[in-house]
Amino acid sequence: MSILVYVEQAAGKIKKTSLEAVSYAFALAQKTGEGSVVAIALGTIDSQELAAVGESGAAKVLHASDERLNAGVIQAHASAVAQAFQAVGTSTLILAKSSLGDAVAARLAIKLDAGLVSNVVELPRLESGFVVKRSIYTGKAFADTTITTSKKILAIKKNAVDQKVDGAKAQVEEFAVVLAAADFASKITATERATGEVLLPEADIVVSGGRGMKGPENWGMIEDLAQTLGAATGCSKPVSDIGWRPHHEHVGQTGVKVAPTLYIAVGISGAIQHLAGVNSSKCIVVINKDPEAPFFKAADYGIVGDAFEIVPQLTAALKAAQ
Amino acid sequence: MKILVCITHVPDTTSKIQFTANNTKFDPTGVQFIIGPYDDYALARAVELRDQTGGTLTALNVGEAETEPTLRKALAIGADDAIRVNSFPKDSFFVAKQIAQVAKVGGYDLILMGRESIDFNGGMVHGMVGELLGMPSFSPVMKLDLEGTTVKMAREIEGGKEQLEAQLPLIAGCQEPIAEWKIPNMRGIMSARTKPLLVVEPSSQETQAEASSFQLPLAKGSVKLVDKDQVSELVRLLKNEAKVL
Fold this sequence. Notes:
The complex is a heterodimer.
Chain A: E1 3-7, E2 9-10, E3 13-14, H1 16-32, E4 37-42, H2 47-51, E5 60-64, H3 74-88, E6 92-96, H4 99-112, E7 115-120, E8 130-136, E9 141-147, E10 152-156, E11 171-174, E12 186-193, E13 205-209, H5 220-229, E14 232-235, H6 237-242, E15 262-266, H7 272-278, E16 283-288, E17 301-304, H8 307-321
Parallel strand pairs in A: 1-4, 1-6, 4-5, 5-11, 6-10, 7-10, 13-14, 13-15, 15-16, 16-17
Antiparallel strand pairs in A: 2-3, 8-9
Chain B: E1 2-6, E2 9-11, E3 19-20, E4 25-26, E5 33-35, H1 37-53, E6 56-63, H2 68-77, E7 81-86, H3 92-106, E8 110-114, H4 125-133, E9 137-147, E10 150-157, E11 160-167, E12 170-174, H5 186-192, E13 197-200, E14 209-215, E15 224-225, H6 231-241
Parallel strand pairs in B: 1-6, 1-8, 6-7, 7-13, 8-12, 9-12
Antiparallel strand pairs in B: 2-5, 3-4, 9-10, 10-11
């Protein structure tokens, strides 16, 4: 039996976390030794981009190209994915954890009568039941969770598996979906999206600044460092609360939770509420002039000193090493 | 205008998380429980909307008797009455079923809750309740205004936000900056003691998933400090030792 993966797009590009979800499904299919991976993609996406989903392990991509699906309308997406689930005749749906993914998966859990677990960090164990490990308490713990229904939905946390890349192309098929007016219960009146920047929840490297940056006018050096690394920029809660940086950059317990390979924190003391948003990072670097800053206890590498001197030096050293 | 706000009873964000009974139960020793921070935003906005429309606001929690102080706090902040579904919240599906049943009986126009709980972080309950009731659901909502039966919202999307409009009834999973958290005043605390708190038994026992055992992450090794005059050494370590560049 095939495994279905709901892949999300941003401006016509399949999201990296969605490709990780495809890789996860591929690894799961290998583990159970049955079936292939089918992806469902929604909205306007060009066929080469869709075929490239094959590199991560999908044999086939179903494409519902209705342009009304370009925006993340929760009910319409849930309805389209449910139709693909029935058409493929699968019992397992995989997707990347995201704010849209969670909301769509929740509706699907009811529509399909499927057990849903989010924040999954490993492949399931199948020896006794279907047991998945998920991150809970905002990364402070893990829970082994048994799904007791025959249909299953897993929302995969970033970095749970390595993205598989092998150059294979997926077969792309147009998939006709029937959408009702009720699926579009809302009208989107405006969209503001920063363009050309690395999306924070997707980023492999994140550079964040805190109140130690002293003011929004000093963010140039954070952006320079981020640009040199191909990183996204983030900030602490106080910084977004004062309005130095936009709210969607706030990293922490009540902001964006990130799981990059490398997290660089500049002038952030490391309050528990900030740490909860970064504790899934693979490697943490802290730059702070206060040697007693609690963030150093959660860091892999640290430099005690003035950010205004160190950050430009670090940018220069990275450029020299490239 | 009838508003329902769903409240989680969760460990304070600064809590040290520990488990007991051979890692099968959460250890509440020394833990202070609070209204979930996202639910607290939803509650604050719900109080403002109730005041604006002159309607009623009911706070709901699915939990055992120990969650009543948390519900009383919601009453102190401004909810008119409260309902507790008397059961341990077994999984998201179980909780969604209870909320949907309460909502069916109460006939609410607007259902608000946090975008996710901060214990299990599922972010699913608003979507599940929406599907169970056949109502649209939106999350994460960072602004919500009422103009008659039209709801104008801003929803956070990755790297930005989206402005949208929909009609009542609907469900929203909320996050900051939808409203400022409200701190109960003395009058609120006094009146909360006598506001009605109805306890109902669960309408269904169905679940879809069961958390069987818990683990803590591996402890982090100690930080390796690099001298501030040796910044290029940090680049070398990130490249060759951590292998993250």
